[in-house]
Structures are given as structure tokens and as C-alpha cells.
Amino acid sequence: MTTLTVTTANVNGLRAATGKGYVEWLAATEADVVCLQEVRAEPDQLADHVRAPEGWHTLWAPSSAKGRAGVAVLSRTEPEARRIGFGSTEFDATGRYAEIDLPGVTVASLYLPSGEAGTPRQEEKERFQAEFLDHLKVLRKRAADDGREVVVCGDWNIAHHEADLKNWKTNQKSSGFLPEERAWLTRVLDEAGYVDVVRRLHPEVAGPYSWWSYRGRAFDNDAGWRIDYLMSSPGLAERCVEAHVERASTHAERWSDHAPVTAVFELG
What we know:
Blueprint: E1 3-10, H1 14-18, H2 22-28, E2 33-37, H3 48-51, E3 57-61, E4 71-75, E5 81-84, E6 97-102, E7 105-111, H4 120-145, E8 149-155, H5 179-190, E9 195-196, H6 197-201, E10 228-232, H7 234-238, E11 240-245, E12 261-266
Parallel strand pairs: 1-2, 7-8
Antiparallel strand pairs: 1-12, 2-4, 3-4, 5-6, 6-7, 8-10, 9-10, 11-12
Helix pairs in contact: 4-5
């Protein structure tokens, strides 16, 4: 049986994560593809073993705004094609999206803007969502026409349901859990036809959370948010046999405020 293991991880600054355990994690991972978000560095600012780790093919998409955003896709198999951005005049240079084609599967890394309710940052997030939903529809159709599956991995910066964050009652007016954001994520599933592979395998649980604030004792109390998703085409979702959050054993062992989220697909 051929399997494809995909991991998504918001690294919260790759240079910082490098000194906290990211390099060791990458060396130990069994993933075939790793999607990174919030890299916050140009490739030439990274150490050689981070920029071009042995055994990996890399696609870096830094932001034109120095020290912000940035995504990457690392794959053990050389991609058949690489693309940065999704045809957006406003967002293609902001380090928010990159995708690769592997045999039979397109894998993308997404870092959706975080927003802040009632501010221009939220308006930016809404503009991104509007353009990106259109892209998701085109991506699904293009993949289907080519006989391919697709999975969009990353930090979507939205908790979809009450089960996706611990303190949902006090966050109903917070960016990341606004009704209109949650409705947009529903459109990704219902209108664009994607499947949340973690929730499909874990339908009745709280979380599993993938982000915990560094403030207070959020991690120790598991007061987290589930905002890191792998959204796949239905055919690929049917082949997902395992999905889990790689939660650190202790606060001290974390190398990011997010934990990696991993899914395993049986391709036949």
C-alpha cells in the first residue's frame, strides 16, 4: 500500500523555531510533505541546513513585507510543478500561499490573514477570503479535470465550530470566531466541496486543538483553538486513515505556539 503523509505546521518564525527544536523535529518526521506557515524570513536568511535540508525539495514563498508571513512546501519527491500565489494582485507577493504538484496530488500551504475585528486588518482578511474561495473552486475543478486530488494545508485562522476552541463563549466577537468567518469556512466545505480531514476522523471531540496562546497557562490547561486544517478533495479524504495533532508533551518542548497537524492517506 502506497501512503502519503502530509504535515502542516505554523512555525511562528522559522529562525526562532530552528533554535527550539524544529530541525530535530524535521529530521525525525515521517511526513512525505511538510507545509510551513509564518516562516517570516527570506530563504537567504536561513541556515543552509534549514533552507535546503537533506532529502527534501523546497519551495519558499516569502512575503514582500520583510519579517512577515511567508509559507513553504517541503517534499521528499521532486514536484512536477510549483506555483506561488493564486492569481491575486493584492496577495500573491504577501507570502500567503504556495502549491506543488506531486504525482496524482496537488498539495498547498496556506497562511490566511489573522485579522482583528473592526479594523482594516479584518477588512484585509475578508478580501483575502473572497478571492481565495474563488481559487479553491478553480483548484478543485482543475484537479478533477486532470484526474488529481488536492489538499490545502495550513493556518486558516478560523475556528469553525464551538468544538474547535476551548473558550468559545468569550470569543464570539473575536476575529477567528466571528459568525461571518465561520460561515465562510462552511462555504469552503459545502460550496467549494472540500473536506476537513481531521474532523472527518474525529467528529465528536473537542479540538484536537492546534494553537495555544503563550499567555498564561493556555497550553497546560489545553485552552486552545483548532485553526490549522488539512482541507482535501472528497476522494482524497476518503483515503485518509489517520489524522492527529503532534502536541508537545510539555510547554518547554514547544518550538512554536502551534503544533504540527499530520494526516496519512492510503493512495492504493
